[in-house]
Write a structure and sequence with these properties.
Number of domains: 3
Order of helices and strands: EHEEHEHEEEHEHEHEHEEHHHHHHH
Strand order of the largest sheet: 5-4-8-9-10-12
Structural class: alpha/beta
Radius of gyration: 22 Å
CATH superfamily of the largest domain: Response regulator
Shape: globular
Largest sheet: 6 strands, mixed
CATH topology of the largest domain: Rossmann fold
Strand content: 5-15%
Helix content: 40-55%
CATH class of the largest domain: Alpha Beta
CATH architecture of the largest domain: 3-Layer(aba) Sandwich
């Protein structure tokens, strides 16, 4: 991805979609005399190509929600120096967790090429930083390569992942994220939507239309939950037992009284503890977990909607569609269409 790229000598075409990553590439593309659409978050002064890229603020917000949902109250960002887009992501994440009343620690290291951390990174130094953070801690990284280094540093420091250190990557790469003995959870970038929007804008430019006056920002489709964040950072055993029971019994009808009995407390006590630890009621947690399960099934399977709604515990496709419209502003079918290309 960080190679020096150029169009072939003698190339003749009507337009270009490019990841404009260097000034020299920007100059070369500007000299072609054809419309260009940039799909990189990298920005250079004076470069005015129409831009379609991932919404970094939305990405950071979704990451924060994912980790807050699991009960984390200690947060950190593993950053890369000198990269403006990584700095934007880092700041947006800090602001997102700050709105919930929590601080966010930051450790920045020098990249060796593009957005890749140095393979000779001092893991002992990173491990010392991780040890100093309140536990359990949730760490967001820019990409899977950075997440990998946090996992290596945690293991070298004898910290458990995800029990002591949960790790979430800002982008998904199925191969890299599933290569380690601890699979890495990641944000699912809306790559198909970015490609479609870039092609739509380029088509308009080639027809003489004006491009958008500001960048087109595409939010992630959600989070692919894997082992690195698959934990609950909650000290209250009753709440942990209740949430685990909800996950285990998701496909059948659930009642708050039944969940409270399983957790060994009264309904009133359970509701009060849910509000204290998770800032939501048990009923809201049931709905939230069912929505996440439906999203996973839409992403990973071709299961028909009626069957899928039953597997996720909604009871009917109509109710599932209602929840999707309320929470995602789209139908389950529209959600599946958006994420199909990344299955």
């Amino acid at each position: 991805m960080e190679e020096r790229l150029a169009l072939p000598r003698g190339w003749r075409g009507d337009g270009v979609i490019a990841r404009v990553s260097t000034r020299s590439m920007a100059r070369e593309l500007s000299g072609l005399g054809v419309p260009v659409v940039n799909v990189s978050a990298i920005e250079f002064p004076g470069v005015t190509f129409p831009q379609v890229t991932s919404d970094l603020a939305a990405s950071a917000g979704i990451a924060a929600d994912h980790l807050l949902d699991r009960g984390f109250r200690s947060f950190a960002y593993f950053s890369l120096r000198g990269l403006e887009y990584v700095a934007k992501h880092q700041q947006a994440f800090k602001e997102s967790v700050s709105k919930s009343g929590f601080p966010c620690a930051v450790l920045a290291v020098d990249p060796v090429k593009g957005a890749e951390p140095d393979w000779n990174l001092d893991l002992a130094k990173v491990g010392t930083w991780l040890k100093m953070l309140p536990k359990p801690v949730a760490v967001l990284t820019w990409n899977p390569s950075s997440a990998r280094e946090i996992i290596f540093a945690s293991q070298a420091a004898k910290l458990l992942v995800p029990e002591d250190v949960a790790v979430l990557s800002g982008t998904d790469d199925k191969l890299l994220c599933e290569l380690l003995d601890v699979d890495i959870s990641a944000l699912l970038v809306g790559a198909e939507t970015i490609g479609f929007e870039a092609a739509r804008i380029l088509d308009g430019l080639m027809s003489g239309e004006k491009g958008p006056g500001k960048p087109v920002l595409v939010p992630p489709a959600g989070v692919v939950t894997r082992q690195s964040t698959d934990t609950l950072a909650i000290s209250d055993r009753a709440v942990v037992k209740a949430v685990s029971f909800i996950r285990e019994q998701l496909s059948r009808p659930l009642h708050v009284m039944e969940i409270a009995r399983h957790a060994g407390v009264s309904r009133r006590v359970l509701e009060r503890r849910f509000q204290y630890h998770l800032k939501r009621s048990p009923a809201e947690e049931i709905r939230r977990v069912r929505l996440r399960r439906a999203q996973e099934l839409l992403l990973d399977t071709d299961m028909p909607i009626p069957e899928l709604s039953e597997a996720a515990g909604f009871g009917s496709p109509e109710y599932m569609a209602y929840v999707f419209r309320q929470e995602c502003n789209m139908t389950p079918v529209e959600y599946r269409r958006r994420v199909t290309s990344r299955r």
